[in-house]
Amino acid sequence: MDDADLTLWPVGVAHTPYETPAAAPHQGFADDTDAEIEIFDEYADELSGIADAVRITVVYWAHMADRMSRTEPDGTGAFARRSPNRPNPLSICVCTVYDADGQRLQVGGLDAVDGSPVLDIKPSLQTER
After folding, report:
1. Are 94 and 27 in contact (CB under 8 A)?
2. Which residues of 24-63 are buried (b: 16+ CB within 10 A; e: fewer)?
3. Half-sphere exposure of 129 (CA within 13 A, CB side)
4. According to DSSP H, which parts of 23-110 are helical?
5. How much is the CA Rg of the chain, to the nearest whole Å?
6. Which of 12, 78, 113, 126 is most buried as measured by Cβ atoms within 10 A of its Cβ?
7. For the segment 79-126, what is each residue's pLDDT rounded down to a tens digit?
8. pTM over 0.90
9. pLDDT for res 22
10. CA–CA separation, 91 and 16 (whole Å)
11. Rounded distance, CA 8 to CA 88, Å?
């Protein structure tokens, strides 16, 4: 596949208390810290109906990941663990929706580092309050 065939556009940005990958949990549900997802203007209409969701799956780019340091000292590879250090630091996290106000979602359990580009949001299986 040619690299030109793959293009991602961020739809928003994560605002979290985590300043470094080491500070962020590797399982969001293990730390239900409050966070905010800010959706960019051009995608604001895509939030229609999201207030009914109890949980959402957030797809984001782990922008501070070390893409070259992928194997742990014990030999465990990137595909056998949840570390953001991987060839393509694409991350997913199931979050609890607390509030949807305009282009901002208040959520719990987002394990992204502050400033991580949000690529997509999908309602989880249990979607209605």
Report:
1. no
2. bbeebeeeeeebbbebeeebeeebeebeebebbebbbbbb
3. 11
4. none
5. 15
6. 12
7. 888 788 888 999 999 999 999 999 999 999 999 999 999 999 999 866
8. no
9. 81
10. 15
11. 12
For 48, phi and psi rounded to 5 degrees? -55, 120
What CA–CA distance (Å, rounded) separates 24 from 54? 23
* Residue 98: alpha-carbon gap to chain centroid: 16
Going by the DSSP 8-state scheme, the letter that residue 84 receives in this structure is S
Judged against a pLDDT cut of 60, whether residue 29 lies above it is answered with: no
Structural domains for the chain? 13-123 (2.40.30.70)
| Closest by Cα among 112, 67, 65 to 93 | 112
Do residues 56 and 129 make contact, with C-beta atoms less than 8 angstroms apart? Answer: no
| Predicted confidence band of residue 58 (pLDDT cuts 50, 70, 90) | very high
Residues 61/116, Cβ–Cβ less than 8 Å: yes
